[in-house]
Amino acid sequence: MVIVKGLIPVRDDLRDDALALIQTLASEARLEEGCVSYEVYVQADSPRVIMLWQQWRNLDALERHFDSDHLDDFLDRIPDMIDGEVHSLRFDVTGENEEEIEEAPPRFDVVLGDDTVLH
C-alpha cells in the first residue's frame, strides 16, 4: 500500500473555493481503480491548511492517478488559491511479513455535528 499525505495552505479569502475544488478531486479519485481511501481534512490549529490523506493499493494505482484528467484539472486550478509552501510525503507500507497490505483497516468515525468528524 502507498500512503500520500499532502498539506496545502490556501488563501483565507479563497478557502471555501479551494476546499470545494479539493473535495471534487477526492470524490473523483475515490472512483479510481486502486484507490483505497482519499480523505480531505482541515487542520484544526490552522484552518487555512487543507490536508489530503490518500491510500493506494500500490504504486501503479498512484501513478495512474497522476495521469488522470481530474488531477490535471485540479493542478491547473489550485495554484492561484495557494498561500505558502505545499508539502507532500509518500509512504510505502508493508505488513509484518513484508506482504503488501491489500485493505485499509476499518474506520470508526465519530460525528460531532456541524459536519465535524473525528477519525
Beta-strand percentage range: 25-35%
- Note the overall shape: globular
Q: How much is the radius of gyration in Å?
A: 15 Å
| Overall strand count | 6
Total helices: the number is 3
- The amount of helix comes to 25-40%
Q: How would a textbook summarize the main sheet?
A: 4 strands, antiparallel
Residue runs with pLDDT of under 50 for 5 or more positions = 104-112
Structural class: alpha+beta
* End-to-end CA span: 20 Å
The residue-averaged pLDDT reads 86
Output the helix-strand order: EHEEHHEEE
Strand order of the largest sheet: 2-3-1-4
Report on the architecture of this protein.
The structure is a single chain. The strands form two sheets. This protein has a four-stranded antiparallel sheet with strand order 2-3-1-4. Helix 1 runs antiparallel to helix 3 (69-77). It has three helices and six strands. It has 119 residues and is of the alpha+beta class. A hairpin with a 6-residue loop joins strand 2 and strand 3. It has helices spanning 15-29, 59-66, 69-77, and strands at residues 2-9, 35-42, 49-56, 87-92, 110-113, 116-118.
Features:
about 120 residues; alpha+beta; 4-stranded antiparallel beta sheet; two-stranded antiparallel sheet; 3 helices; globular
Which helices and strands, and how do they pair?
Blueprint: E1 2-9, H1 15-29, E2 35-42, E3 49-56, H2 59-66, H3 69-77, E4 87-92, E5 110-113, E6 116-118
